[in-house]
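Deliverable D4.2, example record:
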Amino acid sequence: MLNNYPLLTIVIFIPLAACLLLLPLWSRASIAKPVAFGIAAVELVLAGWLYFSWQSLAGAPARLPGYLLLEDASWIPSFGIRYTLGLDGISLLMVMLTSFTFCGALAVSWNSIKERVVLFLTLMLIMEAGIMGVFLSLDLALFYLFWEIMLIPMFFLIGVWGHGRKIYSTIKFFLFTMFGSLLMLLAIIALHLLHAAQSGVVTFALHDLLHTQLPFNTQLWLFAAFFLAFAIKFPLFPLHTWLPDAHTDAPTAGSVVLAGLLLKTGSYGLIRFGYPLFPLAAQAFTPLFYTLALIGIFYASLVAFAQEDMKRLIAYSSIGHMGYVAIGIAAWDPVALSGSILQMANHGVTTGALFCLIGMLDERAHTRDIAAFGGLWGKIPLWSFFFLIFSLTSMGLPGLNSFVGEFLILAGTIKQSPLVVVLSFIGIILPLIYMVRLVQEVLFQKERQTLVLLDLDLREIAILAVLLLLDIWVGVHPAPLLDMIHLPVQLLIGGAP
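Output generated by the structure prediction step:
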């Protein structure tokens, strides 16, 4: 029955339609907040419904192998642009992560955003629609449209509601992302024209462009453009410099979405578009991909150890954790790729939780400097408990979600490159150093300043408790998610989109 309804269109456009509901509430923030959160909750319910229905959908006849739902309609026929959306296990996991992350981001910003509240909520909903579109698009022109839509709200979130050097961070974020996006646009147009010259068919459809026969040198140039755009969003060393500034100066909700979702659009783009479209070039780039990922892991860990701002430290840790995702993709092995996809979701949950915790502490103490804290375990035990657990998760403690993803990445990569795995394992030790230092100084060190702090309230406990349950569930029983992405991963490795 689900195939008879445009569920994917509904998932994308419900947040956009909700923006119209917020317009009459421009000066009534107390009403607009529950309305926006209700819309995000509806998205979460739809994502949950799709998750619990995926096995029945997988058993239905599919127009494309591995896809649970597909929507296709002509949009701009003169240019061969179609409105094509598809949902497989990988994109379903990303849709679930997106809907969950936006619920958490809106909940954590409930009291912290006090100015231009309705504009903030509107931008958040527009960004949710754009990110959903990125994860569901199977037409390159449509994908690029949603890719640009998701970036514009983040630009304003940092510039309007950020703090510190917010204008500098906003401009830096804009320049990096737009440079990569323009290169990708040129590559998309070039691929479109090459396919049309070769086949006589004018199209931007991914499944048609996969059959384009390209010389190796042409593949190299086109893949390089895609790779650069996605590597900036990843971010890979040395294209990472925009991320710590953006995280540091963004509001808490912006940091949660940035870490939880925007970074994942880069890794998802490589998995869905970059590698399938240009397999020979991707294989040739593998040594470079490994090298950049490993440099990023070691560099980010060393720089994180030197940070005094907790938020900036976690921002650098994100670069290191995403380096492992990059290694799993570069290996292009079923086990390693499954680990990378799972780790994308794991990182979104764990790092999002840490940014939530730091934002909650910043609201109370009005500082994020590590040197300002100490002895918080005895002052705010609930906050300290959650901070300790999520820090352990970030370190890859067995029984929690990050361990599963990293283990699968290394287990799959060792067949392709044992040296990379050895170096990666050394890199796993480095987060233990800076995270143990962070936990020790903030929670158990002697109090440096006299701070009067309130512990978590019920809203904050609820947010963190749900995140913790997800961490434990995936850490103890990852099989349902791995089963969901198994077939799409097999098809990708075999050459299907």
